[in-house]
Write a structure and sequence with these properties.
Blueprint: E1 2-11, E2 14-24, E3 29-33, H1 40-47, E4 55-60, E5 63-64, H2 69-73, E6 76-79, H3 91-101, H4 106-119, H5 135-147, E7 153-157, H6 165-178, E8 183-188, H7 191-197, E9 200-205, E10 208-213, H8 215-222, E11 226-233, H9 237-244, E12 250-255, H10 259-264, E13 269-276, H11 282-292, E14 296-302, H12 307-316
Parallel strand pairs: 3-8, 3-9, 6-7, 7-8
Antiparallel strand pairs: 1-2, 1-4, 4-5, 9-10, 11-13, 11-14, 12-13
């Protein structure tokens, strides 16, 4: 559905994207993750036909974005970081106009508008001027214009930037729902966003893709130590930490500072994180020590690396695997 082959894009002497290759199948939900300036937006602009690649190729649904630009664009719905809205038009008038720009027939537009308004939950505001909407609701209008023509591919560049936390949650939920109907690329530098929505992650750093996998596999690949979440009862945290640190395969033990785990302390439960050498039986040793010490074992299970830890590992290690 989406293919990048050795695609590079330079602005003068500055290489924004360097030799990027990737294939995204129909129906995939892919996160394009990287810090500001990594090359995410440039790649999105190449895919959507806004700017041609300097080298290599990009294709949507089998159509080259340069030689068959119009054919490729018919398959794309695009939500840029700054949504191009006409503030003096009502929501319905704007969406109707966007449908006309995409050469949709009047009948098709009339059929799609009620569906789109319901999908993005703009029923109360369909006759409101776009300029009077909050930024979160303007973002919904932007999503509506991106999907009005029923595209196969939906490309979103930083879709939740600048909106309030409540509408961030609502927008993420909406994007997740759309992912069941479209091949979706979500560009973001927000780690929880990609983790919550996407089933596959492309990590880009300094214009190059440094990883391509799902979050769980990335965690497994980069896990240099086994991390274990432990909850126990009947011991002081300092006592439990001191005792578990004596175990041969344990590298470190610390209190679990996540808010939900901190609240457990009020009920007498001590929550700890244990870092151990992988594949050396540390969970069994930890469990045995807790039981032999006369403490109650409440919970013990593996704790994978977070997407943030994966990202830092990939973008600070010069020899990071591709």
């Amino acid at each position: 559905m989406i293919r990048l082959e050795h695609m590079s894009k330079s602005y003068g002497d500055y290489p924004a994207v360097i030799d990027v290759s990737a294939y995204i199948q129909q129906g995939e939900i892919v996160g394009f993750l990287g810090p500001n300036g990594a090359g995410k937006t440039t790649t999105m602009r190449v895919l959507t036909g806004f700017t041609p690649p300097t080298e290599g190729t990009a294709a949507i649904a089998g159509y080259d974005v340069v030689s068959h630009s119009l054919d490729a664009r018919r398959h794309i719905g695009y939500l840029p970081e700054s949504v191009p809205l006409y503030l003096d038009m009502t929501v319905m008038d704007y969406l109707r106009y966007m449908g006309q720009l995409r050469a949709m027939s009047r009948k098709w537009i009339d059929e799609r508008l009620p569906v789109i308004i319901e999908t993005v939950r703009l029923g109360e505001y369909q006759n409101t001027l776009v300029g009077k909407l909050s930024k979160g609701y303007r973002q919904r209008v932007g999503i509506a214009q991106a999907i009005i023509h029923e595209p196969d591919v939906l490309i979103m560049d930083e879709p939740t930037i600048g909106i309030d936390p409540i509408q961030v949650v609502e927008t993420r939920s909406l994007i997740s729902e759309l992912g069941g109907e479209h091949t979706l690329i979500l560009s973001s530098h927000i780690l929880p966003e990609v983790s919550a929505i996407c089933r596959r992650v492309l990590v880009i750093h300094e214009g190059r893709i440094v990883a391509d996998d799902d979050p769980e596999n990335l965690s497994d690949r980069l896990q240099h130590a086994e991390r274990i979440e432990v909850s126990l009862r009947g011991a002081e945290s300092s006592e439990a930490i001191s005792q578990l640190r004596k175990l041969q395969h344990v590298v470190d033990v610390r209190r679990d500072s996540r808010p939900a785990q901190e609240r457990m302390a009020e009920t007498g439960v001590v929550a700890l994180v244990v870092d151990a050498r992988p594949d050396e039986g540390a969970p069994e040793d930890v469990a045995r020590t807790i039981v032999d010490s006369g403490w109650g074992l409440v919970n013990l299970h593996p704790l994978p690396m977070t997407l943030e830890e994966i990202f830092l590992e990939l973008t600070t290690d010069e020899e990071a695997p591709v």
